[in-house]
Write a structure and sequence with these properties.
Elements: H1 22-27, H2 29-35, H3 42-46, H4 60-82, H5 97-109, E1 139-146, H6 151-154, E2 159-164, H7 177-180, E3 187-188, H8 191-203, E4 209-212, H9 220-231, H10 239-246, E5 264-265, E6 268-269, E7 273-277, H11 283-289, E8 295-298, H12 307-312, H13 317-330, E9 334-340, H14 346-360, E10 365-369, H15 398-410, H16 416-419, H17 428-433
Parallel strand pairs: 2-4, 4-7, 7-8, 8-9, 9-10
Antiparallel strand pairs: 1-2, 1-3, 5-6
This protein binds iron/sulfur cluster (SF4).
The site of iron/sulfur cluster has 15 residues, from loops.
Length: 434
């Protein structure tokens, strides 16, 4: 069967003007094709690659070595599928590469190194907790069709966004503080309930499954298991699955019946997996994500100075995030970077972030976000306000936002279509960006 047999376009998404922008179409080509079910998502390809290990008996070292071998195979097969030289093929005998990802994520949970804190606590036992304060349980705060994401991700029917609780960073101004600082927020979910949530969002027309928090990396084991369940073709979920999943859903605008036509490739579940993250992941976690994630949406918040420590109590921020960004560039992944312009932090944070992107990822779009508002410890009207964060206690002013735009333009960084949602040739931009 050709990869295009049975392809039915999801009206609207493919017709968005944004795809006429060269930077969007060039570095988001894979994502766009998977969103439209013209190509299989990476996790589907991982399920076709057998691995030669004993998942129960082999050492973690052996499992990683096999993952490295499997990664090379997946990259080659993905490229062949992308260029029309190969078909997806049937599922592999067990264990396959996805089973290996799941086993490795479970092993990591026992000496947790999901993120760069590298706490090494046994979260499976849960007797000692790390920075994220989580044991093995996963809670979802809410999930819905997100219509506030970038146009390339919200499309016409929303981004299928699943918000996990807790976080591994401590941003004083967190814009999702109710979710990230309260580890008991939301509802406990099983991997099967999580898979049902993703299935529902996709079949209701969402263009992607958007894993976010807090930070999703601290829930890696549950997410990998949910993706595994989706690969085993869970559709349709049972009434019990739906009952458990629907209690957490908060869609007010999108009341639509799930239609399997929206999320199938060659008759099985398909959706681009979007990693929406602070990017404080460990390099081991990045190796697993590489096999599952179709498009990356990393934050790049702070410059190389002490802002990561002062504003988020996070050491090694710059080193970790730039290392992970360099990895996705080396792997030629589809991605969009986000940078929240903060008041009084344009020179120490915004400029170095733009400089780094211009030098190291010149083809990637960056969303220079202007919506910062004081929250949590920076909100002078809130009960948690701490005067030491006074410099962050207002919105960025016009001069700061324009300085960010002009600097990006002077460095040749692509930001216009994703930030302003207007094509770069729009004459109005001359006034805005100078
Ligand atoms: S996810 Fe990160 S913060 Fe949480 S225990 Fe693991 S290494 Fe520590």
């Amino acid at each position: 069967m050709s990869t295009l047999d049975g392809y039915i376009p999801m009206t609207g998404f493919d017709d968005l003007w944004v795809w006429s922008d060269e930077t969007s179409s060039k570095r988001l080509e894979w994502y766009r094709a998977v969103a439209e079910n013209r190509l299989p998502a990476k996790f589907r390809i991982a399920g076709t690659i057998p691995v030669d290990v004993d998942l129960e008996q082999d050492s973690e070292e052996n499992l990683w070595a096999e993952l490295n071998r499997g990664t090379i195979q997946l990259s080659k097969r993905r490229e062949a599928i992308r260029t029309g030289q190969a078909e997806l093929g049937p599922k592999a005998r067990r264990p396959h590469l996805l089973d290996l990802c799941l086993e490795l994520s479970r092993r990591m949970l026992r000496h947790c190194n999901f993120c760069a804190w590298d706490c090494r606590v046994d979260r499976a036992q849960g007797t000692k907790l790390g920075t994220c304060k989580l044991d093995h349980g996963t809670r979802v705060s809410t999930y819905f069709h997100h219509i506030g994401e970038e146009l390339i991700y919200r499309g016409t029917k929303g981004s299928g966004t699943i918000f996990f609780t807790s976080c591994n960073m401590r941003c004083a101004f967190c814009q999702n503080g109710d979710i990230s600082t309260d580890k008991d927020n939301g509802t406990t979910v099983t991997p099967r309930t999580l898979a049902t949530m993703a299935w529902l969002l996709r079949m209701e027309g969402c263009h992607n499954i958007n894993w976010v928090g807090g930070d999703p990396i601290i829930h890696l084991h549950t997410i990998v298991e949910a993706i595994s369940i989706l690969t085993d073709n869970m559709a349709p979920p049972s009434d019990q699955d739906l009952e458990q999943a629907l209690s957490t859903k908060s869609d007010y605008l999108f009341k639509m019946a799930p239609e399997t036509i929206n999320g199938l490739f060659q008759d099985e579940f398909n959706a681009p997996m979007l990693w929406n993250s602070n990017f404080f992941a460990s390099s081991e976690a990045m190796k697993i994500l590489r096999l599952l994630i179709d498009v990356w949406l990393p934050d790049f918040k702070f410059g190389p100075g002490r802002c990561g420590i002062k504003l988020a109590r996070t050491s090694r921020y710059w080193e970790t995030v730039t290392r992970n960004l360099a990895l996705i560039e080396e792997w030629r992944e589809d991605a969009t970077i986000r940078h929240l312009v903060m008041p009084n932090h344009v020179e120490c944070c915004t400029y170095p972030v733009i400089d780094w992107v211009a030098e190291n990822m010149p083809e990637i779009q960056i969303n220079l976000m202007d919506q910062y508002h004081p929250e949590m410890f920076t909100n002078p009207l809130g009960s948690k306000y701490q005067p030491k964060y006074e410099s962050l206690s207002r919105r960025p002013n016009d001069q700061e936002i324009l300085a960010a735009y002009r600097y990006a333009r002077s460095k040749g960084v692509a930001f216009e279509s994703v930030t302003l949602e207007t094509p770069p040739e729009n004459p109005r931009l001359a006034n805005i960006c100078g």
